[in-house]
Amino acid sequence: MSRTTIGLxxxxxxxxxDVSLREHPVLQCLRxxxxxxxRSSMQxxxxxxxxxxxxxxxxxxxxxxxxxxxxxxxxxxxxxALPDNGTLIACDINDDxxxxxxxxxxxxxxxxxxxxxxxxxxxxxxxxxxxxxxxTVDLAFIDADKEAYDTYYELILRLLRPGGLVMIDxxxxxxxxxxxxxxxxxxxxxxxxxxxxxxxxxxxxxxVPIGDGLTxxxxx
Length: 220
Ligand code: DHB
Ligand code: MG
Description:
By secondary structure, the chain is an alpha/beta fold. About 40% of the residues lie in helices and about 20% in strands. Helix 6 (about 120-130) runs parallel beside helix 7 (about 150-160).
């Protein structure tokens, strides 16, 4: 019996990948191509992608929102787990990054499930609400500008159905969240959001130490 979470050495993390990773060939190509990108550290880890895809299947998710697409790895992992009539509403402002994403979504045969909105995500999410889509989203992933996470969280909470799940990336900030209030506006914003969610009675909460930390918030 263990009273704490195991720390992962590089060899133990490699073992996890060796015995559990089942990466779609197009996901693997995308991950390797993105590793050469200047902002490659923004890509989620493959085990995190597989975990998120499993959650999508577990929930029977059909309508998903992603805020922060980058080159599309997490969106592809989740889109592959959606039924053929499922929809992933992908929000980003960067045409260069998402044009890479689109190529791989096409190659993997999931492009028809993805609806890409190239606009500030708060505007896209508000538009969905104005359009009457409150309470219709099964699953969401927040992985964009950290200073705006709380704005995205509040909008997504309204879009989610009761029992819907929002996953929030980078909630551990490479460990920096455990220090004093950060000088980094991004880390400080995550620290405030983590503290807020701790006492937020609108959700059931779990903070999972996968990747750079993934918070799961299930709408009551
Ligand atoms: C950064 C952003 C991310 O979403 C991430 O997963 C890793 C790094 C960043 O802004 O540096
Ligand atoms: Mg991230």
